[in-house]
Write a structure and sequence with these properties.
This is Simple sugar transport system ATP-binding protein. Pfam families: ABC_tran. It is found in: Cell membrane. The protein is α/β, with parallel strands linked by helices and about 525 residues long. The chain has three domains: about 230 residues, Rossmann fold (3-Layer(aba) Sandwich); about 180 residues, Rossmann fold; about 80 residues, no CATH class. Helices cover about 35% and strands about 25% of the residues. Helix 14 crosses helix 15 and helix 15 packs parallel to helix 16. The longest helix is centred in the middle third of the chain and has 16 residues. Bound molecules: adenosine-5'-triphosphate. The site of adenosine-5'-triphosphate (ATP) has 19 residues, from strand 2, helix 1 and helix 15.
Length: about 525
């Protein structure tokens, strides 16, 4: 039991950090009690990841003190953090994919006592940790063959193996299916029961309310409030984060669908290994409606979207925009698809939506650089491009409002807004959007959802792919559920979560096949 005199697991005192002109952490004080799950929420760019990176030794604070278990510690790098008992479960896993679970867990702990004890001892220790925390996993499985939920468990095991008493998880459920997320929270509960301390960063207030004991709110580099979770609400947290009341649901009137704008017929897409990812899919999207594709990640939605956007070559089928087949002459590429009035917000902004080393204003026109409004004779009109970027920054409240900043230095949610503003402002006939609010804060979600509804009401056709069922249910006028590359159901837009959930799990599909 934690007695009132037990020092906090972590105390941050006056932590301050600047990146050039950006004051990312402003004299932050934070105390996290031992054996608790402590949530940290805040808008995109509020400074959450920076604070955690300081705690984990990726960055050094310009000022301030870190105390672990009551004693000041100098966390100069991640090794020092590990020595202080702090472990990080990364958003983008840092595992060696072709190594086994055991090899990954041992890797990097080489100098430690455990490795010197040899593989057999390490295996025994791994088993012990696994049993103690219900982290059921095969130590001899090769990491790349494991689903993401299990890969994340390997990250947790790795931290525990190094003796972590404090675990930091940054947006851990972004890549998980709902069932995997539930399992993760069970594991976190078990870890807490064993006295471990957990710091959870997430934009999902539902998760905060479901699993944390306390929650702290950051806004524009400051720590503005800490609450006992039982004594707060999603509305209060949202208001503390954003500084104003936020609509937590989408307000939209009925759709007035017009003629078919996008028509997909018997589309089949195979991946590089020849595996069928999209299997003879047909549907239409009309002007003035949002069609949502629901499904657990990996069931072909991404490939479907990429094929329509001209990034992947379908092996069969037709895609028509306003009646005209794309690539009828055998040439299908993203530039030609865009020219036909299609805009695309890709799911993976890092690999497809942005060039991170470019300045913001360069990404703000990426793919549209041949538009005459960005040209002066044969050359790019830099002044026009920057003026255009500044207008989008203002309209989409992209922070910091600096169109010359390298894109890599924007926070994740702000990077997402850069892509969205570029594609939405094209005023496309068809907008393809993949995971529009992944990693995006609550105020920005409200804004993005309003923009999508406004675009629909302006008579545009929108195809939305999202693994967030809430998002699909609140935005889509029609829902298509994808499972194993096929559309397995078209539930009404007001269908309940469980009904759609069953289709997403393929239950309905299996029954139909039997
Ligand atoms: N290496 C860096 N160089 C320059 N600026 C940076 C760097 N890292 C972060 N920043 C800036 O510091 C601020 C805080 O960013 P941080 O990533 O901590 O926010 P966050 O709260 O984690 O946001 P998100 O929810 O979007 O991940 C942002 O304005 C960001 O652009």
């Amino acid at each position: 039991m934690t007695s009132p005199t037990t020092p906090p697991a972590i105390e941050l005192v006056g932590i301050d950090k600047r990146f050039g002109a950006v004051h990312a952490n402003k004299s932050i004080d934070l105390s996290i009690a031992r054996g608790t799950i402590h949530g940290i929420v805040g808008e995109n760019g509020a400074g959450k990841s920076t604070l955690m990176s300081i705690l984990y030794g990726f960055y050094q604070a310009d000022a301030g003190e870190i105390r672990v278990g009551g004693a000041p510690v100098a966390i100069t790098d991640s090794q020092a953090a590990i020595r202080a008992g702090i472990g990080m479960v990364h958003q983008h896993f840092m595992l060696v994919e072709n190594f086994t679970v055991l090899e990954n867990v041992m890797l990097g702990a080489e100098g430690g006592v455990l490795l010197r004890r040899g593989t057999a001892a390490a295996r025994a220790e791994l088993k012990r940790i696994e049993r103690e925390y219900g982290l059921d996993i095969d130590p001899d499985a090769v990491v790349e063959e494991l689903p993401v939920g299990l890969q994340q468990r390997v990250e947790i095991l790795k931290a525990l193996y190094r003796g972590a008493e404090i675990l930091i998880l940054d947006e851990p459920t972004g890549v998980l299916t709902p069932a995997e997320a539930d399992h993760l929270f069970k594991i976190l509960g078990q870890l807490r029961a064993q006295g471990k301390t957990i710091v959870l960063i997430t934009h999902k207030l539902r998760e905060i309310l479901a699993v944390t004991d306390n929650v702290s709110v950051m806004r524009r580099g400051e720590m503005v409030a800490t609450r006992k979770t039982a004594e707060t609400s999603a509305e209060e947290l949202a208001e503390l984060m954003v500084g104003r009341r936020v609509l937590l649901h989408v307000e939209k009137g009925p759709a007035h669908p017009g003629p078919v704008v996008l028509s997909v017929e018997k589309l089949t897409v195979r991946d590089a290994r020849g595996v069928t990812m999209v299997d003879g899919v047909s549907f239409d999207v009309r002007a003035g409606e949002i069609v949502g594709i629901a499904g657990v990640a990996g069931n072909g939605q991404s490939e479907l979207l990429e094929a329509i956007a001209g990034i992947r070559r379908p092996s069969a089928g037709t895609i028509r925009v306003n009646g005209e087949a794309l690539g009828a002459d055998g040439r299908l590429d993203p530039a030609r698809v865009r020219a036909s009035g299609l805009a695309h917000v890709p799911e993976d902004r890092h690999h497809m939506g942005l060039v991170l080393s470019f300045e913001e204003n360069e990404n703000a026109i990426l793919g549209y650089q041949t538009d005459p409004k960005y040209l002066k004779g044969p050359l790019l009109d830099i002044d026009a491009i920057r003026a255009d970027a500044r207008a989008k920054i203002e309209r989409y409240d992209i922070r910091p409002p600096d169109c010359r900043l390298r894109t890599a230095n924007f926070s994740g949610g702000n990077q997402q807004k850069i892509v969205l503003s570029r594609e939405i402002e094209r005023d496309p006939a068809v907008l393809l959007v993949g995971q529009p609010t992944r990693g995006v804060d609550i105020g920005a979600i409200e804004f993005i959802h309003k923009r999508l509804v406004a675009l629909r009401d302006a008579g545009k056709a929108i195809l939305l792919v999202s693994v967030e069922l809430d998002e699909i249910r609140s935005l889509a006028d029609r829902i298509l559920v994808m499972f194993a590359g096929r559309i397995v159901g078209t539930p009404p837009a007001d269908a309940d979560e469980q009904e759609i959930g069953l289709m997403m799990a393929g239950i309905e599909a299996r029954e139909a096949a039997e």
